[in-house]
Amino acid sequence: MSTGGARGEQEYISRLYGRLDELRTEARQRLDQVLATTGLGHQGLAERDVAAAELAARTARLDSVENGLCFGRLDLRGDERRYIGRIGILDHTGEFEPLLIDWRAPAARPFYVATAHSPDNVQLRRHIRTSGRTVTGVVDEEFGATAEPAGDTALLAAVNAARTGRMSDIVATIQREQDDIIRSPGTGVLVVQGAPGTGKTAVALHRAAYLLYTQRERLSRSVVLIVGPNPAFLRYIGEVLPSLGETGVLLATVGELYPGVRAMVTEPPATAELKGRAAMAEVVAAAVRDRQRVPEEGLEIEHEGALPRLDAAACRRARDLARETGLPHNQAAEVFHGLIVDALARRVADRFGTDVIDGSSLLTDADLETIRGELATAPEVASAVAALWPPLTPQRLLTDLFASPERLAAAAPAFTAAERALLLRPAHHSGWSPADVPLLDEAAELLGADERAARSAEAARQAEREEQLAFAQEALDIAYGSRATDFDDGDEAERLSAFDLVDAEELAERHAEADHRTPAERAAADRTWAFGHIVVDEAQELTAMAWRLLMRRCPARSMTIVGDIAQTGDPGGAASSWGRVLAPHVGDRWRQAELSVNYRLPAEIAAVAAGVLRRIDPARRAPRAVRATSVEPWRHAVPRGRLAAEAVELAARECARTPEGRVAVIAPEELLPALAGRSAGLPDRVDVLGVRRAKGLEFDVVIVVDPGGIESASPRGLNDLYVALTRATQRLGVVHASDGPPPPPLPDLRPLQRPGAE
Ligand SMILES: Nc1ncnc2c1ncn2[C@@H]1O[C@H](COP(=O)(O)OP(=O)(O)OP(=O)(O)O)[C@@H](O)[C@H]1O
Composition bias, kind Low complexity: at what positions (predicted)? Predict the structure, then answer.
């Protein structure tokens, strides 16, 4: 690494930061000006809010690119020089030349794809390292020269760096196969398959940033949704997009995608698996149909004396016709009500008798209409009809379904009794689980809005508005009343007061709560939001029901799906094949890209993982590791009762030998309480966790406890073991019970010398 070059670059980098500071100040001043603007009408206020939101987003973007603002330089043949960085910055003097080129712009691409074989007009590629605003070093790669490729030096420094517990961006070292995926067009469904550590998450996040750059107008309004497997994972990746200047995305688990429901309840894996099956879509549909009843004994209503009875056949006809409209349940309820009223009106007319000669009604059409109108508004009719076809919320439907063995038997006849028992729970349950969320969403689609609830919400809004109007009128009256006493010095004609400028309507609008939420916040609160693009990470974990929910949220089917079939630990989780998962939603209209280089695992750990992968699927090729560390993974056999104690002791030992970075102890769920009890004295940078929570995360050092226990804990335990063994960037140890051999290929590992003797 050259420090001479570093000194040479400092002046330019300082100039860039100077310009960044100016841009920030300008953006803040404009924001302050916009917010201070007054005297706008309703339309003007709305425009002001839009401008303010855009300026606030710009300010946030400029603030977030402080670290590593510029990380590269390209010298092209013909004396052109380009500096590459997190955002584009123009020189404000003269010709508005680019001072810094956004990494996503086409002009930056040679920085990522130029090679000695295909230099793309590049003479020199320079990696610039900074700490704060100071240049700490540069690494040059001259094309045509025989120097060590600097790209590798920069990449190796990045992959070897100690982990902080938060994922960092890879914008300075994106590799060619990753760049191809990041810049591939945003239309359609793109699946990125790759083994653990190949950079799927990194690529997916940079792709989101790239699409936001190329389609800013569309995507900043329609919002990019990033879906991860659990909140810990979302926290882990949460800083990547802001560091790339992108703050307007929504990160969520599937369990967080039903507004108004906090899915906090944990339930047995078998229940969650069952709720995730595609068959549940039919169960929910059947549960809705089951609530559209026909009384076998017919329908008898007390209204001004008993109304004529409607027999079951007439009720069934009304139900079938209402269903045939194809409307959601709550909207079809109105149709059903109308049909029952029609049938009743005809019966009432019949009671008055028919003409003995031709059998026609003795009542005129007008008479019939009067009877109909009267029945249509009769509360007794309404409540009798609602008992047959009740208005339902998704929560009500599922609560009733899961609380009743009879309802479950009717809605899920294809499930076994044992399976239905897994779904049973009391009506007064303590809340919703993540697996309930796609079911609630499914129900919401089939039920539609509860029209009556919507009407009463609209009535409440109207009442509130009238109240605001009255309040505004009162305020104006007071202002008007006080005018003579306030301004009796004769110059009131020159002064403007509230009643001169606004009427009550306008004042009420000003008092009305403006919607200052960002598009991402509005999207989070709206079940029917159509996202502009969805990124699904750890996609192999999603259930069939979760896929249905996500596809509904993305009618344009613009999606990036990243995952690894070999890491599916959840039998209800998708994927033994991406084709099978996607076929119901997009047929074969999807494309796949593959990542083939392992950036996380050193070759020594990758070899252990490859052994497990061979057991999962002998046909699958393990990715090539980008580096070796010469540190061999170890194993340590201990009596079963000592697993937790020894693991904690070894974690402490690993901490002592690795002064910075993260250490993880990954164990079967049933060992976690024992481990937690013993690990209180360990430093904060040690995590003790099960495989489920470790998915997608990485650590400098990993100790896998009781691999046999992880493997036997579930039908896909071997996949879980594979996940656990693929989390470490530097060192891996395995602690296993001495009463049996560790599962292959772990017996080949070097046995650990007694601590201290190594
Ligand atoms: N081009 C790159 N430059 C520097 N680091 C990289 C690069 N590509 C990937 N990495 C690093 O490799 C590690 C693994 O990346 P990532 O977590 O995206 O892999 P993954 O394929 O999603 O893994 P998993 O399947 O386990 O979730 C991360 O630390 C990431 O920053």
Answer: 749-758
Angle at 291 between CA 286 and CA 294, to 5 degrees: 110
Q: Is 416 left (phi over 0), alpha (psi -120 to 50) or beta?
A: beta
Structure tokens at 675: 């481990």
Ligand 1: which of 560, 698, 721, 730 to mutate, most ligand atoms within 8 Å of CB? 698
Q: Longest C-alpha distance within the chain, in Å?
A: 114
Peptide linkage before 745 cis (omega within 30 of 0): yes
Q: Which amino acid is at 716?
A: R
Please classify residue 364 by burial: count the beta carbons closer than 10 Å to its beta carbon, then call 0-12 exposed, 13-18 middle and 19+ buried: exposed
Backbone angles phi, psi at 117, to 5 degrees: -75, -35
Sign of CA dihedral 489, 492, 495, 497: positive
- Residue 197: which residues within 8 A CB-CB, separation 6 or more? 598, 599, 600, 601, 606, 623, 698, 726
User: Which pair of tokens denotes residue 618?
Assistant: 């002998």
Locus of tokens 């949220």: 553
For 72, left (φ over 0), alpha (ψ -120 to 50), or beta?
Answer: beta
Closest by CA to 34, choosing from 50, 15, 16, is: 50
Residues of the chain under the 70 pLDDT cut: 1-5, 145-151, 353-357, 359, 361, 450-461, 464-465, 467-515, 568-576, 754-758
How far, in Å, is the centroid of ligand 1 from the Cα of 635? 26
89: β partners: 100
Pairwise CA distance, residues 455 & 558, whole Å? 35
Report pLDDT digits (tens) over 203-255: 999 999 999 999 998 998 999 999 999 999 999 999 999 999 898 899 999 99
pLDDT computed for residue 120 by the predictor: 84
First to last CA, the chain: 34
Ligand 1 geometric centre to CA of 158 (Å): 10
CB atoms within 10 A of CB 223: 23
Q: Which residues line ligand 1 (CB under 6 A)?
A: 155, 158-159, 170, 173-175, 178, 194, 196-202, 564, 599-600, 696, 698, 726
Question: Do 56 and 35 contact (CB within 8 A), yes or no?
Answer: no
Which atom of ligand 1 has the smallest separation from the CA of 726?
Answer: 26
Q: Kindly report the backbone phi and psi dihedral angles of residue 467, in degrees, each rounded to the nearest multiple of 5, phi listed first.
A: -65, -40
Residue 224 CA to ligand 1 centre (angstroms): 21
Residue 54 has a pLDDT of: 84
Cα separation, 534 vs 545, in Å, equals: 16
Give how far the C-alpha of residue 694 lies from the chain's centroid of Cα atoms, to the nearest Å: 18
In sequence order, which ranges of 355-503 are alpha helices (DSSP H)? 365-376, 379-388, 394-403, 405-411, 417-423, 436-447, 451-481, 483-486, 498-501
Distance from C-alpha of 594 to C-alpha of 624, rounded to nearest angstrom: 13
What does the block give as tokens for 201? 């998450």
Q: Nearest 5 degrees, angle CA 565-CA 571-CA 572?
A: 100
